[in-house]
Amino acid sequence: MGIEYHLRFTASDAIDVAEVLRRHPEAREIAPPSLRFEFGSAGEGWPQATVQVEAGGVYFCDHCGGSGRALLGEVVARLVSAFGTVTVEEL
User: Positive or negative CA dihedral for 78, 91, 38, 32?
Assistant: First the structure.
């Protein structure tokens, strides 16, 4: 649980999106081929953020345990660099 977002953009396929996320220094991929990533550590085994690749973009959850909002900005910047315009929608 935390602050949830949909990040929408146009990518050729989910594997391309996962490749961009894998390049982030704090990304840990969870049980491939789920295309789910955890970022940072908020203590007690919780990540600062979770990202799930979905059709048309990604789901991002800031678990409110540290720098989740900064991670959101970093992820958006990487996606913009790779795919162009990214729309951020808070859920």
Answer: negative
